TrEMBL record:
A GO cellular component entry from the record: extracellular region
Source lineage: Eukaryota, Metazoa, Chordata, Craniata, Vertebrata
Location (main, coarse): secreted
Name this polypeptide is given: VWCE protein
VWFC domain mapped to chain residues: 14-71, 71-132, 129-190, 196-256
Compartment list: Secreted
GO aspect biological process, one term: cellular response to virus
Keywords of the record: Glycoprotein, Secreted, Signal
InterPro entries: vWF_C/EGF_Fibrillin (IPR052080), VWF_dom (IPR001007)
Amino acid sequence: PSPRAAGAPGTSVPHCWYQGAPREPGARWMEPGCRSCTCQQGRVLCEAVSCPVPCSHPLPAPAGRCCPSCTGCLHNGVARAEGDVFSPSDGNCTVCICLGGNISCISPECPPGSCPSSSPPDCCSCQPAKCTFRGHTYPHGARFSLDGDDCTTCVCRGGEVECSFAPCPILDCPQHQRHLGPGQCCFTCRDPPAPAGCFVDDNGVEFPIGQIWSPGDPCELCICQADGSVTCKRTDCVETCPYPIRIPGQCCPDCSAGCTYMGRIFYNNETFPSVLDPCLSCICLVR
Protein backbone atom coordinates (compact mmCIF):
# COMPACT_ATOMS: atom_id res chain seq x y z
CA PRO A 1 0.00 0.00 0.00
CA SER A 2 1.20 3.52 -0.86
CA PRO A 3 1.89 5.80 2.09
CA ARG A 4 -0.74 8.41 2.71
CA ALA A 5 -0.31 11.88 3.99
CA ALA A 6 -2.15 13.14 7.00
CA GLY A 7 -5.13 15.33 6.15
CA ALA A 8 -8.71 15.90 6.93
CA PRO A 9 -10.64 12.92 8.26
CA GLY A 10 -11.63 10.62 5.43
CA THR A 11 -9.26 12.24 2.81
CA SER A 12 -5.75 11.24 1.59
CA VAL A 13 -3.21 12.47 -1.08
CA PRO A 14 -1.38 9.57 -2.72
CA HIS A 15 2.44 9.62 -2.94
CA CYS A 16 4.52 8.28 -5.84
CA TRP A 17 7.14 5.57 -5.83
CA TYR A 18 9.98 6.00 -8.35
CA GLN A 19 12.99 3.70 -8.51
CA GLY A 20 12.40 2.53 -4.91
CA ALA A 21 12.03 6.01 -3.40
CA PRO A 22 8.86 7.94 -2.47
CA ARG A 23 8.05 11.24 -4.17
CA GLU A 24 5.83 13.94 -2.72
CA PRO A 25 2.60 14.72 -4.57
CA GLY A 26 3.25 17.52 -7.11
CA ALA A 27 7.07 17.12 -6.89
CA ARG A 28 9.17 17.84 -10.04
CA TRP A 29 12.68 16.64 -10.80
CA MET A 30 15.07 16.10 -13.76
CA GLU A 31 16.25 12.79 -15.05
CA PRO A 32 19.27 12.06 -17.28
CA GLY A 33 18.69 12.73 -20.97
CA CYS A 34 16.93 16.07 -20.26
CA ARG A 35 13.65 14.42 -19.13
CA SER A 36 11.39 16.29 -16.73
CA CYS A 37 9.32 14.15 -14.32
CA THR A 38 6.43 15.02 -11.92
CA CYS A 39 4.31 13.14 -9.32
CA GLN A 40 0.57 13.47 -10.08
CA GLN A 41 -2.11 11.49 -8.28
CA GLY A 42 0.33 8.74 -7.35
CA ARG A 43 1.69 8.42 -10.88
CA VAL A 44 5.07 9.52 -12.24
CA LEU A 45 4.83 11.35 -15.59
CA CYS A 46 8.06 12.13 -17.58
CA GLU A 47 8.56 14.02 -20.83
CA ALA A 48 11.46 15.44 -22.83
CA VAL A 49 12.42 18.98 -22.01
CA SER A 50 11.44 21.46 -24.74
CA CYS A 51 13.96 24.24 -25.31
CA PRO A 52 12.62 27.29 -27.13
CA VAL A 53 15.66 29.21 -28.46
CA PRO A 54 14.89 32.88 -29.17
CA CYS A 55 18.30 33.61 -30.78
CA SER A 56 20.08 32.67 -34.02
CA HIS A 57 23.56 31.82 -32.61
CA PRO A 58 23.01 30.19 -29.16
CA LEU A 59 25.83 28.85 -27.02
CA PRO A 60 25.85 25.15 -26.07
CA ALA A 61 24.07 24.23 -22.86
CA PRO A 62 26.33 24.65 -19.82
CA ALA A 63 27.15 21.68 -17.61
CA GLY A 64 24.11 20.44 -15.67
CA ARG A 65 21.61 22.13 -17.98
CA CYS A 66 19.63 20.96 -20.96
CA CYS A 67 18.87 24.10 -22.95
CA PRO A 68 21.40 26.27 -24.83
CA SER A 69 22.09 29.78 -23.67
CA CYS A 70 21.42 33.02 -25.55
CA THR A 71 23.77 34.97 -23.31
CA GLY A 72 26.52 35.19 -25.90
CA CYS A 73 26.92 33.94 -29.47
CA LEU A 74 28.57 31.03 -31.23
CA HIS A 75 30.09 32.08 -34.61
CA ASN A 76 32.05 29.57 -36.77
CA GLY A 77 32.77 27.45 -33.68
CA VAL A 78 34.06 30.44 -31.64
CA ALA A 79 32.14 31.66 -28.59
CA ARG A 80 31.58 35.41 -28.54
CA ALA A 81 30.50 37.34 -25.42
CA GLU A 82 27.48 39.61 -25.41
CA GLY A 83 28.38 42.91 -27.09
CA ASP A 84 31.63 41.54 -28.59
CA VAL A 85 32.69 43.29 -31.87
CA PHE A 86 34.91 41.30 -34.28
CA SER A 87 35.83 40.85 -37.96
CA PRO A 88 35.58 37.42 -39.65
CA SER A 89 38.87 36.02 -40.91
CA ASP A 90 37.48 35.56 -44.45
CA GLY A 91 35.61 38.87 -44.61
CA ASN A 92 36.70 41.93 -46.58
CA CYS A 93 36.77 44.40 -43.65
CA THR A 94 33.34 43.19 -42.49
CA VAL A 95 32.49 44.09 -38.86
CA CYS A 96 30.21 41.85 -36.74
CA ILE A 97 28.65 42.24 -33.25
CA CYS A 98 26.99 39.81 -30.82
CA LEU A 99 23.68 41.12 -29.44
CA GLY A 100 21.11 38.96 -27.65
CA GLY A 101 22.48 35.72 -29.08
CA ASN A 102 22.34 37.05 -32.62
CA ILE A 103 25.22 37.97 -34.95
CA SER A 104 24.85 41.12 -37.04
CA CYS A 105 27.48 42.00 -39.68
CA ILE A 106 27.97 45.10 -41.80
CA SER A 107 30.38 45.83 -44.66
CA PRO A 108 31.80 49.25 -45.57
CA GLU A 109 30.41 51.04 -48.60
CA CYS A 110 33.21 52.12 -50.92
CA PRO A 111 32.81 54.79 -53.60
CA PRO A 112 34.22 53.97 -57.03
CA GLY A 113 37.67 55.33 -57.70
CA SER A 114 41.25 54.62 -58.56
CA CYS A 115 43.63 52.68 -56.39
CA PRO A 116 46.04 54.99 -54.56
CA SER A 117 48.67 52.22 -54.58
CA SER A 118 49.05 48.52 -55.14
CA SER A 119 48.17 47.92 -51.44
CA PRO A 120 45.42 50.37 -50.39
CA PRO A 121 45.45 51.17 -46.66
CA ASP A 122 41.64 50.99 -46.34
CA CYS A 123 39.33 48.09 -46.96
CA CYS A 124 37.54 49.44 -49.98
CA SER A 125 38.01 47.77 -53.32
CA CYS A 126 39.13 49.97 -56.17
CA GLN A 127 39.31 50.14 -59.93
CA PRO A 128 42.93 50.17 -61.21
CA ALA A 129 43.85 53.30 -63.12
CA LYS A 130 44.27 53.26 -66.89
CA CYS A 131 47.51 54.17 -68.67
CA THR A 132 47.96 56.92 -71.23
CA PHE A 133 51.06 56.33 -73.33
CA ARG A 134 52.03 58.08 -76.58
CA GLY A 135 48.50 59.22 -77.30
CA HIS A 136 46.85 55.85 -76.55
CA THR A 137 44.87 54.73 -73.49
CA TYR A 138 45.33 51.19 -72.19
CA PRO A 139 43.35 49.38 -69.41
CA HIS A 140 45.10 47.93 -66.40
CA GLY A 141 46.95 44.72 -67.29
CA ALA A 142 47.01 45.40 -71.05
CA ARG A 143 50.17 44.34 -72.94
CA PHE A 144 51.30 46.06 -76.13
CA SER A 145 54.45 46.39 -78.26
CA LEU A 146 56.54 49.51 -78.55
CA ASP A 147 56.67 51.27 -81.94
CA GLY A 148 54.74 48.43 -83.53
CA ASP A 149 57.55 45.86 -83.33
CA ASP A 150 57.96 42.80 -81.17
CA CYS A 151 61.35 43.74 -79.76
CA THR A 152 59.95 45.66 -76.76
CA THR A 153 56.89 44.58 -74.74
CA CYS A 154 55.04 47.01 -72.47
CA VAL A 155 52.36 46.42 -69.80
CA CYS A 156 49.98 48.82 -67.99
CA ARG A 157 50.09 48.49 -64.20
CA GLY A 158 48.01 50.86 -62.04
CA GLY A 159 48.43 53.86 -64.33
CA GLU A 160 52.12 53.27 -65.08
CA VAL A 161 53.68 51.69 -68.17
CA GLU A 162 56.53 49.19 -67.76
CA CYS A 163 58.52 48.17 -70.85
CA SER A 164 61.15 45.46 -71.30
CA PHE A 165 63.21 44.13 -74.22
CA ALA A 166 62.48 40.71 -75.65
CA PRO A 167 65.12 38.16 -74.54
CA CYS A 168 67.43 36.87 -77.29
CA PRO A 169 68.89 33.35 -77.49
CA ILE A 170 72.60 32.72 -76.97
CA LEU A 171 74.35 32.14 -80.31
CA ASP A 172 77.14 29.58 -80.76
CA CYS A 173 78.57 31.07 -83.97
CA PRO A 174 81.49 33.54 -84.20
CA GLN A 175 80.85 37.28 -84.37
CA HIS A 176 81.49 37.59 -88.13
CA GLN A 177 78.74 35.04 -88.87
CA ARG A 178 76.00 36.88 -86.90
CA HIS A 179 73.35 38.78 -88.84
CA LEU A 180 70.41 41.08 -87.93
CA GLY A 181 67.73 40.93 -90.62
CA PRO A 182 65.06 43.56 -91.37
CA GLY A 183 62.32 43.58 -88.72
CA GLN A 184 64.21 41.14 -86.49
CA CYS A 185 64.90 41.81 -82.80
CA CYS A 186 67.73 39.36 -82.28
CA PHE A 187 70.85 38.38 -84.22
CA THR A 188 70.89 35.03 -86.00
CA CYS A 189 73.75 32.91 -87.35
CA ARG A 190 74.47 33.02 -91.06
CA ASP A 191 74.81 29.72 -92.91
CA PRO A 192 78.50 28.77 -93.23
CA PRO A 193 79.96 29.19 -96.76
CA ALA A 194 80.20 26.19 -99.02
CA PRO A 195 83.51 24.34 -98.65
CA ALA A 196 86.19 25.21 -101.24
CA GLY A 197 88.27 22.15 -100.50
CA CYS A 198 89.16 19.51 -97.91
CA PHE A 199 91.16 20.24 -94.80
CA VAL A 200 93.22 17.34 -93.47
CA ASP A 201 93.74 17.66 -89.72
CA ASP A 202 96.73 15.32 -89.33
CA ASN A 203 99.15 17.40 -91.46
CA GLY A 204 97.24 20.66 -91.86
CA VAL A 205 97.17 20.51 -95.68
CA GLU A 206 94.08 21.73 -97.55
CA PHE A 207 93.35 20.04 -100.89
CA PRO A 208 91.07 21.52 -103.57
CA ILE A 209 87.95 19.71 -104.66
CA GLY A 210 88.85 16.84 -107.03
CA GLN A 211 92.47 16.57 -105.83
CA ILE A 212 93.83 13.00 -105.55
CA TRP A 213 96.74 12.23 -103.22
CA SER A 214 98.32 9.47 -101.14
CA PRO A 215 98.27 10.00 -97.37
CA GLY A 216 101.60 8.17 -96.86
CA ASP A 217 100.79 4.63 -97.94
CA PRO A 218 101.43 4.20 -101.73
CA CYS A 219 98.69 1.59 -101.85
CA GLU A 220 96.03 4.08 -100.58
CA LEU A 221 94.63 6.97 -102.64
CA CYS A 222 92.28 9.73 -101.38
CA ILE A 223 90.08 12.24 -103.25
CA CYS A 224 88.52 15.50 -102.07
CA GLN A 225 84.75 15.39 -102.66
CA ALA A 226 82.54 18.38 -103.59
CA ASP A 227 80.95 18.55 -100.13
CA GLY A 228 84.36 18.88 -98.41
CA SER A 229 84.60 15.25 -97.34
CA VAL A 230 87.54 12.94 -98.07
CA THR A 231 87.09 9.46 -99.57
CA CYS A 232 90.02 6.99 -99.53
CA LYS A 233 90.46 3.57 -101.21
CA ARG A 234 93.25 0.97 -101.17
CA THR A 235 94.77 -0.56 -104.33
CA ASP A 236 94.73 -4.34 -104.68
CA CYS A 237 97.80 -5.85 -106.42
CA VAL A 238 96.87 -8.73 -108.74
CA GLU A 239 100.14 -9.20 -110.76
CA THR A 240 102.44 -11.91 -109.42
CA CYS A 241 105.90 -13.12 -110.47
CA PRO A 242 108.59 -15.32 -108.89
CA TYR A 243 111.02 -12.46 -108.40
CA PRO A 244 109.02 -9.25 -107.81
CA ILE A 245 110.85 -5.93 -107.55
CA ARG A 246 109.76 -3.44 -104.90
CA ILE A 247 110.25 0.10 -106.20
CA PRO A 248 110.19 2.84 -103.50
CA GLY A 249 107.06 4.96 -103.71
CA GLN A 250 105.24 2.39 -105.84
CA CYS A 251 102.39 0.29 -104.39
CA CYS A 252 102.56 -2.97 -106.34
CA PRO A 253 105.79 -4.88 -107.17
CA ASP A 254 107.12 -4.63 -110.72
CA CYS A 255 107.73 -7.88 -112.56
CA SER A 256 109.20 -6.29 -115.75
CA ALA A 257 111.57 -3.65 -114.41
CA GLY A 258 114.57 -5.84 -113.66
CA CYS A 259 116.10 -8.17 -111.06
CA THR A 260 116.82 -8.06 -107.37
CA TYR A 261 120.23 -9.43 -106.29
CA MET A 262 121.62 -9.23 -102.77
CA GLY A 263 119.30 -6.30 -101.93
CA ARG A 264 120.19 -4.40 -105.14
CA ILE A 265 118.01 -3.82 -108.22
CA PHE A 266 119.44 -4.42 -111.72
CA TYR A 267 117.63 -3.59 -114.97
CA ASN A 268 116.95 -5.99 -117.79
CA ASN A 269 120.14 -7.14 -119.65
CA GLU A 270 122.32 -5.39 -117.08
CA THR A 271 125.56 -7.27 -116.11
CA PHE A 272 127.16 -7.14 -112.69
CA PRO A 273 129.85 -9.11 -110.78
CA SER A 274 128.93 -11.86 -108.41
CA VAL A 275 129.34 -11.14 -104.74
CA LEU A 276 130.31 -14.72 -103.99
CA ASP A 277 132.92 -15.05 -106.72
CA PRO A 278 134.52 -11.95 -108.29
CA CYS A 279 135.56 -14.04 -111.29
CA LEU A 280 131.90 -14.61 -112.17
CA SER A 281 129.82 -12.14 -114.15
CA CYS A 282 126.02 -12.10 -113.83
CA ILE A 283 123.33 -10.70 -116.16
CA CYS A 284 119.67 -9.77 -115.43
CA LEU A 285 117.26 -11.45 -117.78
CA VAL A 286 113.51 -10.73 -117.38
CA ARG A 287 111.42 -13.64 -118.60
